[in-house]
Amino acid sequence: MRALADLFDFYRGKKVLVTGHTGFKGTWMCKLLTLSGAKVVGYALQPSTSPNLYELSKMCDCKTYKGELSESSVLLEKSADMFSIFGDIRDLERLKKVFEKFEPEIVIHMAAQPLVRRSYEEPVYTYEVNVMGTVNVLECIRQCSSVRSFVNVTTDKVYKNKEWYWGYREDEELNGYDPYSNSKSCSELVTDSYKNSFLKERNIAISTVRAGNVIGGGDFAADRIIPDCLRAAETGKAIIVRNPYSVRPYEHVLEPIAVYLMIAKEQYRNAALAGNYNVGPEEIDCLTTGQLATLFCEKWKAITGQEIRWESKYDGGPHEAGYLKLDCSKLKSVFSWKPRWDMDVTMEKIVEWSWLYMQKGDLAGCMKRQIEEFLGEIVEQ
User: Fold this and answer.
1) What is the pLDDT along the chain (381 residues), one digit of tens a residue?
2) Are the C-beta atoms of 375 and 8 separated by less than 8 Å?
3) Class of the CATH-defined domain 2-375
């Protein structure tokens, strides 16, 4: 897969703006980009959990701006690999200043309110962040002459879920059920409108990418299965699984991260490759949540020697999809892509990271090793 193999060569020296860089996926994204030698600016709120991967990975050690971006705030220092700017994606004026000062070539939009359950509790906030946040990013791109490639990261939940046994394709109806899923469907429509109305004539390459359920070391969010597994391992309690029979396209975080960067790279070179893409695991790795929990327990015992178990306990929460898969034929055909890690390897990497976290080990080094193993690259640093 040459499209993945030359990521490091392409991004060396490129100016990349990443929204949502303090989150779980955002931190992995910025780690990979800085290893490649890219010049990165991250724009996001401060981390929403404690602990969090952004701090544990030491990505927080980069130069950080929390207050006003004055004229003396130099975002183009040649010696710096990454700048972190704390800001709300709903703050259009602050975001404009970041674009004006940094002049990015590539923009990866990941800032979001990403939790289904929270979207039921805070629907207005969810729509403000996920829809108007996307509008703000696109408006900044419209007014910025340097941008050549934009990737909007959405979700597998953008589709109108009919509980089919087969995967959804990119041309299926967009109409997510809950406020989170629906707001991401809206984000896709906003992106398409801006592309057709303003950005196509400027030859800015624009893609939306719909990833499956992303798992990996460093996720501490509420109401997610792997963080629940880690919390149970820390406390010696059983893992509580709310919906053990729900099927999800689980995949290691590096799978979609690499695809976002691959698409941004390829459409930078050839705008005709831009479009809407699914990224998810092979059919055999679409597991029930109960199967995933069982695999975690098996790998945890094999690596740590400690027993752990899970139990089903439905807590009466709001509606969540029961069956969800993605058809990734388009991504495979256009880019000759295929997943790197199956679920067995994925869980080994998750347990490796989680056990190291509990032992207070070198998590930044672990991330670097896993990125090198995933891409088949050795990074000299």
Assistant:
1) 556 668 999 999 999 999 999 999 999 999 999 999 999 999 999 999 999 999 999 999 988 888 877 654 555 454 468 999 999 999 999 999 999 999 999 999 999 999 999 999 999 999 999 999 999 999 999 999 999 999 999 999 999 999 888 999 999 999 999 999 999 999 999 999 999 999 999 999 999 999 989 999 999 998 899 999 999 999 999 999 988 999 889 999 999 999 999 999 999 999 999 999 999 999 999 999 999 999 999 999 999 999 999 999 876 667 676 788 999 999 999 999 999 999 999 999 999 999 999 999 999 999 999 999 999 865 554
2) yes
3) alpha beta
Q: Give the Å distances, CA to CA, from 13 to 9, 74, 98, 374.
A: 9, 17, 18, 22
Q: Which residues are CB-neighbours of 362 under 8 A, at least 6 positions away?
A: 356
Structure token digits, residue 280: 């998810």
Strands 310-312 and 205-211: unpaired
Sorted by where each begins, the domain ranges of the chain are 2-375
pTM of the model: 0.95
Cβ proximity of 108 and 265 under 8 Å? no
* Residue partners of 139: CB distance under 8 A and separation at least 6: 92, 96, 194
| DSSP label of 47 | P
56 with 28: CB under 8 angstroms? Answer: no
Per-residue b or e along 53-92, where b marks 16 or more CB atoms closer than 10 Å to that residue's CB:
bbbbbebbebbebeeebeeeeebeeeeebbbbbbbbbeeb
CA quadruple 97, 153, 195, 125: dihedral sign: negative
> What is the widest separation between alpha-carbon atoms in the chain?
59
The pair of three-digit structure tokens given for residue 209, joined into one six-digit string: 């990418």
